[in-house]
Amino acid sequence: MNGPLDGGSSDGRGRDDGFRGVPRIPSPRPAPDDLHPHAYRPSATQPPTGDEPGPTPDANAPASDGADRAEADGAYPDRAGAGAPETADGGDMRSHRVLKSLLGAWALAACSAEETTAVEEHLGECAPCAEEALRLRDAVGLLHTDRDLDLDPLLRFRVLESCLGRRPARIPVPGWADPYDAETARLDALLRDIGDSEWHAPVRLKWFEGKTQVNRRTTVAGVIGHLMTVDGLVAGALGLDDPLGPHAPLPPTARTESFWNSADLPPTGAIREPWRDQSHALVRTVSFAGHGVAEMPVSYGTFTLPLRDALLDRAFECWIHADDIADAVDYPYAPPSGTHLNRMIDLAARLLPAALAERRRAGLAGPPQHLVAAGAPGRSLHLEVEGSGGGSWYIALDSPAAAGSPDLSIAQVALDGVEFCKLVAGHVSPEEAAVGQDGDREAIRDVLFAAAALSRL
Amino acid sequence: MQQRLARGEAAALGELYDRFAALVHSQAYRVLGDEEAADQVTREVFGYIWENPDAYDPKQGSMRSWVARLTNSQAVHRLRQSEAAALTEGDGGTTEELEQKVRRAAVAARADYIVTSMPAPLRDALELAYFQRRDYRQTAADLGVTEDEARRRLRLGLQLLSTANPRALEDFSPPDYGRTL
Q1: Domain span holding position A19
Q2: In chain B, what residues touch A107 (CB-CB under 8 Å)?
Q3: What does the radius of gyration of chain A's CA atoms come to, in whole angstroms?
Q4: Distance between CA atoms of A78 and A97, rounded to whole angstroms?
Q5: A314 with A428, same domain?
Q6: Against a cut of 0.80, is the pTM above it?
Q7: A173 and B14: CB-CB below 8 Å?
Q8: Where among A90, A121, A149 does a domain terminate?
Q9: ipTM exceeding 0.90, yes/no
Q10: Closest Cβ opposite residue A166 in set B47, B134, B152
Q11: CB contact A156 to B (< 8 Å)
Q12: CATH number for the domain including A288?
């Protein structure tokens, strides 16, 4: 939790540093509920963000007409003497009307030192204002934030599962969309917790090209723009609006560059809502589309994935970039659940033979050694992934058409699931990945480099 | 949203959770002071809404304030139950202490509800001045209103909030929640 919300002592980060002048009026009697302003000071300094979608009500909304009813202005003649300080807007700072209007700001310790002094002097002389001042100050003690930094991401899963156990969904979210649903929700919860300025925190995106790691600098908001524009590929394939418009390029890098270059101003926290709306719309749309849509091809320009894999790829990217963002703003961020991690690893393992073949064509990997008929077992590398979400995969080495086979395994690598994912994301280089190795060294090298080559901007 | 829930769309349930989970969980935690109990209330509140999507009447105010009200009554109910159980087992305090604890929780719950339901301009002003420690001049600048208006919103927001305290109820009528946020 982010603060001592249950009463008790101040944690030292409260307003006890003078409370910018509060307790100079006669001490209020303790509230019946014993609440104290200090007890409710959040220790986190980030502001709560309104999570209310939709338009903000008119800024000049309804003041209660009872606000001023207790006093008829004029009942308290101005006490201003000659030379009394003036408020910034020209009013006489010592008039009852002005001082009364300052009571809310005063209770919140949100006025200047002069104003604080003037208000407190006034409270000694004006009973109605003194009464209101105490009441408002007690009210400050009731404020607290609904910002909950530690809302367990697993709670979402447990709550939804318990709801669906009580009343089964008539339109369920397909199981293959679960990782995307969960990862976008986790990232959204992180974004909810970051402050306005953190949206501009620098983030270095890393990936792997050819033989080396490359990187590109952007901001937290820029990363969300990147996720949104690439998710837009899937949206477009499903017939939803493409955030880049109808004639946008397909390859993810081109899309991202086009988004980054098209904006006159750097993106801000305002990007969160369209990103989130689109991810919600994707989950909703695949729920309605039913089973047939799982195999629908989604083109990334240079390659194509069936929708179920495309959404898994998007879940993977969402996690990797959420982790980049969390690093940039210094928040903790856990890996996906074991079940989801397992599916992400499985996707990468399935893509590896093709990535290997592509590197071979580019002269970056050794030649095939034993070509076999399509679908027949071929020379393989045993990929053993440890930890949550782990398992064993056999990667066909000589052709994407061959089947991976334990019997024809000529090499084995063992590594942690998260380490493997960071390798696939280009965040860890093949030379540096913490990998246990056994067997044909060239095969191992080629597979690790092919794994890194799966990464992109 | 309500129609989608009624239709049995699991995706709508996910969106409902994404919108309100932080509100529900933090308010439940505030009343109960216990992570596990707050988790449980969160489960109950969303379970109730999912099973009874028609229970919400838009005429009665925003969905947000309805969810806050559900949460608070559920949390206070749970607190009363667990405290009463502790009392029976003899490891709780006195009946009087129990009542005081429940009363305190009820005030906290009312305060949360008021903040959730008050007009957004007032809530925004309070958030700036309290959570971001902006003074009222900075608050005015951030909101793009006059300093007079910023002072008015801060004072009015606190006046509404102060009605959560029982002794304030004697002097002030409850604020008007008629506005949809």
Answers
A1: 1-44+73-149
A2: 154, 158
A3: 30
A4: 8
A5: no
A6: no
A7: yes
A8: A149
A9: no
A10: B47
A11: yes
A12: 1.20.120.450
Domain count, chain A: 3
Contact between chains at B153 and A148 (C-beta distance less than 8 A): no
Last residue of a domain, one of A334, A369, A393: A334
Domain boundary (B72, B98, B117) is at B117
B6 touches chain A (CB under 8 A): no
Q: Is residue B144 part of a domain?
A: yes
Burial class of residue A21 in the structure, from the number of CB atoms within 10 Å of its CB (0-12 exposed, 13-18 middle, 19+ buried): middle
Which chain B residue lies closest to A195 (C-alpha atoms)? B132
Place of tokens 């502001």: A47
Read off the pLDDT of residues A87-136 as tens digits, 9 standing for 90 and up: 444 455 678 899 999 999 999 999 999 999 999 999 999 999 999 999 99
CATH number (domain holding residue B65):
1.10.1740.10
- Domain region containing B90: 1-117
pLDDT at A272 over 80: yes
Element (H, E) at B48: helix B35-51
Q: Specify if A116 maps to a domain.
A: yes
**Looking at the 3D structure of chain B, how many domains does it have?**
2
Give how far Cα A192 sits from Cα of A49, A189, A324, B22, B136, Å.
7, 5, 16, 10, 25
B179 touches chain A (CB under 8 A): yes
Q: Quick check: B23 contacting A, CB < 8 Å?
A: yes
Query: In the structure, what pLDDT confidence band is assigned to residue A348 with cuts at 50, 70 and 90?
Result: very high
Q: With respect to residue B129, please indicate whether it lies within any of the assigned structural domains.
A: yes
Restricting to B residues 72-91, those with a Cβ less than 8 Å away from any Cβ of A are: none
